[in-house]
Structures are given as structure tokens and as C-alpha cells.
């Protein structure tokens, strides 16, 4: 399979018009087998940048190549797996991460046909290697995606132990959004090439740089909750916003205040159980929730389309945190706004080079989202696909495709966005019905 075929298949599968310069350079460099360090900002399309050369190498030697992709967080693992599956390569990908059923993963690793790509978090991958669930010596290509974040989160010892077992590595690819990052000697990087797109912000579908609008909101008192409420009620109807705070407890307080004051939102931080985080992100992505309240956990490694506003409820703890938070908006050539809420005694940090304009608040009544999320108690392990969910609600709910939004299928459940004006009626029609011959529960998700 030649490079042109892979590129054309990728563009067709993703809907992009062309690869950006960074992706082209990575494809040309990495496909030669050279060790690479890719420095590239969030939202620049780096996942495709390293998947495409790997795909070509797997196609060249399908029975010999095994790729291991190590990531700092479960959400990034799932995102990479989803991108790979959308490419329709015909080669399996397996995801392994904490919070997922270990026995199910072990079963996947031992099943046929063999996988081509194994993607997961350091601790879980090391656990599988120690248990003998996969053979580390068969791995030929190693990718450390968001290598800087892996180190920042304290995974160096797990990484060192895992990499120490990979005796058959032919190539190493590291990605990072941080410059001047030390390359650990235990990685064995030799004659590696650095592809530096850190200062460029080319998007996957558009080579324009992101366009930000910076706005400043003054809170008359140190407690900014009322000001945040008025800011959200000033934004355009239908816009999506991420509210960043520095602490889990603060995020929870913000979310509960907004809900109590009529603004539906989702809460996201590392102290939540994984199913709660999954549900929050699903509802935000499918637009049944338009406000996500989060710590910096949501600032990296997540694919969240069409975020209009980044709101710094708390000022970022560092310039790096500031950059990654802002990277959640103005992606793929779109426009986005960054808002700072400052208390009476606060000033913008020195690393904020932009000069935000004052935002005059004119709050209106909050307009609820146009979508509701329906939970289905069956998922991938019960052989449920997106097509099954779409067909089920179309046939039995009395609605057409325009009233059905994003569908997410997890291991043992699925979520479907349905237009709010028909969601209750649809639920009443499908309760008690079987999906693919199995009875299950159908519920509307309403809590934060």
C-alpha cells in the first residue's frame, strides 16, 4: 500500500481536505524508521501525524510490526483508538487503562486475529506485561504521546520498567507540547530527528493560525460565582464553554452553584470515578450540556470539538497551563474566546502577553441545550454498534436522523443525543423494547 493511497484514505475517512505541513513532514521522516521527537501544540493534528507512518509500516510488514502507544490518560488512549478505527485500516487496536476491566483487556490481548496497535497508560501496560498478557519483545515501534505530561504526572518509573522490557524496538516516536524537554537515556533514542512545530499553530483542516479574542471580566468581590453566572448568561445562545479552576473542591462548588441557579453543566476532575468522567465528557461533546467545569485535567489529551469560550475562573498556575487551557478552543482554524475573571486584588500574570478588552456583561435568561442524552444499558461487549442505536431509535421512537445526534458506545452501555423536544416521547415509546434481541434500560441523563 503506497503513501498516496494511505493519505487519500485518511482524508476520505476524516473529512479533511489535506494534511498540514507538520503531518506531511512526520510522514516523510517517520516512515523511514528514524527516531523522532515531535514538538507540536494541542489541536495541531499530531495523532494523525504519527499514526499515518505507522500505518504504512504495518501494511509493509503486517505479520511483523507491533506498535505500542503510551499515553498519560485514559481519554487520550480512547481518542487515539477512535482515530485509528475511523481510518478503516483493517488492523486491530486494543486499549488498556486503569478503571477498565483487566480481565476483558487480557482476553482482548490473547484473542485472534493479533492486534497491530496497543495503546494505554503506563501503569496498566506494565501490569499486563508483568502478568504475561502480551509479549513486550514483539513490540517493534514505540510512541510516547504527550511525553512531557507522562513525566509531569510521575510515571517515569513505570515507563522505565516498561521500556526496559521492549527488546525488539526499532523506532521511537515522542510527542510533546513542551520545548527543551530532557530525553531520558533509558529511552535509547539514537540519532533522532526533532520536528519542531511548537511555535506554529497549523490546524489539520486549515493552515490558518487560531484566532483568539481575549476578554477581561472584573468581579466586584473575591467570590466570583455571581460574576461567572452573569458571564455565562451573557454569551451567545448555543455557545460552549469550559470553566477552568485550580482545585477539585472549587470545581465542585462552581458546578453546584451553576446548577442551583439554572445553568446545567458537567463536572470533570481527577477525583471522579471514570464512569462519571466519561458521562460528563460525552454530554459536553454531544451538546446536551454546554458548560464544562473542570480542573486542568481537561486542558490536554482530549478531543473536544467546537469549544467557543475558555473561562479562567482561577488564573492558571503557570504559562504552560495557560497555553494548554487556551488550546481547547480555536482549533482547526476556528475562532475562540478566552475570558479572565479577576477579583478585586488580582492582576493578570506577566506571561499573559495579550491585552484583553473589558467584557460588559448583559446577562439574559439561560437557554437550555437543544439535546438530551439517552442512556442505553448495552454496549460493545453486547455487540451493540452506533448503527444499531441509530436504527433502534429511528424505527421505534418515531423520529428521523435529523433528530438524533452523536452516539457513543462504551463497553457495556451507550449514549445517544436526541432533540430535547422529542426525547421524553421517544423514551416512552422504547421502554420495555429489546435492542438486538436483548432487554435493557433506557434513561434520560439529567444530573451533573
How many H/I helices?
14
Q: What is the rounded Rg?
A: 23 Å
* Average pLDDT number: 90
Bin the strand percentage. 15-25%
- Rough shape? globular
Number of DSSP strand runs: 20
How far is the first residue's CA from the last residue's CA?
47 Å
What order do the strands of the largest sheet run in, or round the barrel if closed?
A: 3-4-2-5-6-1-7
Instruction: Quickly give the structural class.
Output: alpha/beta
Unreliable stretches covering 5 or more consecutive residues: 199-208
Largest sheet: 7 strands, parallel
Helix fraction bin: 25-40%
What is the oligomeric state here?
A: single chain
Task: Record keyword descriptors for this entry.
seven-stranded parallel beta sheet, 448 residues, single chain
Plain-language structure description:
The chain is an alpha/beta fold and 448 residues long. 33% of the residues lie in helices and 20% in strands. The chain contains 14 helices and 20 strands. The strands form four sheets. The protein has a seven-stranded parallel β-sheet, with helices on both faces. Strands 10-11-9-12-13-8-14 form a seven-stranded parallel β-sheet, sandwiched between helices. The chain has a four-stranded antiparallel β-sheet with strand order 16-17-15-20, sandwiched between helices. Strand 3 (93-96), helix 5 (102-110) and strand 4 form a beta-alpha-beta unit. The N and C termini lie far apart (47 Å). 42% of the residues are buried.
Amino acid at each position: 500500500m503506497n503513501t498516496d493511497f494511505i493519505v487519500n484514505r485518511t482524508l476520505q475517512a476524516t473529512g479533511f481536505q489535506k494534511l498540514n505541513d507538520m503531518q506531511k513532514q512526520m510522514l516523510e521522516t517517520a516512515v523511514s524508521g528514524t527516531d523522532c521527537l515531535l514538538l507540536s501544540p494541542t489541536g495541531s493534528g499530531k495523532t494523525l501525524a504519527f499514526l499515518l507512518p505507522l500505518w504504512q509500516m504495518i501494511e509493509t510488514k503486517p505479520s511483523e510490526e507491533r506498535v505500542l502507544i503510551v499515553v498519560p490518560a485514559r481519554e487520550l488512549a480512547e481518542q487515539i483508538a477512535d482515530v485509528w478505527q475511523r481510518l478503516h485500516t483493517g488492523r486491530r487496536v486494543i486499549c488498556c487503562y486503569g478503571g477498565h476491566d483487566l480481565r476483558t483487556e487480557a482476553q482482548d490481548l490473547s484473542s485472534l486475529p493479533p492486534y497491530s496497535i496497543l495503546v494505554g497508560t503506563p501503569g496498566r501496560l506494565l501490569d499486563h506485561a508483568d502478568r504475561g498478557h502480551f509479549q513486550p519483545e514483539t513490540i517493534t515501534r514505540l510512541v510516547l504521546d504527550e511525553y512531557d505530561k507522562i513525566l509531569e504526572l510521575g510515571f517515569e518509573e513505570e515507563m522505565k520498567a516498561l521500556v526496559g522490557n521492549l527488546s525488539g524496538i526499532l523506532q521511537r516516536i515522542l510527542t510533546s507540547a513542551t520545548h527543551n524537554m530532557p530525553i531520558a537515556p533509558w529511552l535509547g533514542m539514537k540519532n533522532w530527528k526533532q520536528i519542531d512545530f511548537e511555535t506554529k499553530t497549523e490546524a489539520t483542516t486549515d493552515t490558518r493560525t487560531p484566532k483568539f479574542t481575549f476578554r477581561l471580566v472584573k468581579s466586584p468581590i473575591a467570590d466570583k460565582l455571581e460574576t461567572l453566572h452573569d458571564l455565562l448568561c451573557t454569551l451567545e445562545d448555543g455557545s460552549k464553554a469550559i470553566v477552568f479552576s485550580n482545585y477539585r473542591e472549587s470545581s465542585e462548588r462552581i458546578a453546584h452553584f451553576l446548577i442551583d441557579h439554572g445553568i446545567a453543566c458537567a463536572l470533570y476532575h481527577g477525583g471522579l470515578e471514570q464512569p462519571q468522567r466519561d458521562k460528563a465528557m460525552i454530554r459536553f461533546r454531544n451538546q446536551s450540556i454546554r458548560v464544562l467545569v473542570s480542573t486542568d485535567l481537561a486542558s490536554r489529551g482530549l478531543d473536544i470539538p467546537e469549544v467557543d469560550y475558555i473561562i479562567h475562573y482561577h488564573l492558571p498556575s503557570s504559562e504552560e497551563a495557560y497555553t494548554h487551557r487556551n488550546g481547547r478552543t480555536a482549533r482547526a482554524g476556528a475562532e475562540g474566546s478566552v475570558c479572565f475573571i479577576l477579583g478585586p486584588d488580582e492582576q493578570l500574570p506577566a506571561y499573559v502577553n495579550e491585552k484583553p478588552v473589558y467584557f460588559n456583561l448583559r446577562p439574559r435568561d439561560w437557554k437550555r441545550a437543544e439535546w438530551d442524552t439517552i442512556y442505553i444499558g448495552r454496549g460493545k461487549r453486547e455487540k451493540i454498534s452506533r448503527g444499531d442505536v441509530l436504527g433502534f431509535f429511528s424505527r421505534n421512537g418515531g423520529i428521523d436522523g435529523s433528530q438524533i445526534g452523536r452516539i457513543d458506545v462504551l463497553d457495556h452501555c451507550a449514549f445517544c443525543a436526541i432533540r430535547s423536544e422529542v426525547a421524553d416521547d421517544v423514551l416512552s415509546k422504547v421502554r420495555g423494547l429489546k435492542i438486538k434481541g436483548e432487554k435493557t434500560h433506557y434513561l434520560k441523563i439529567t444530573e451533573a
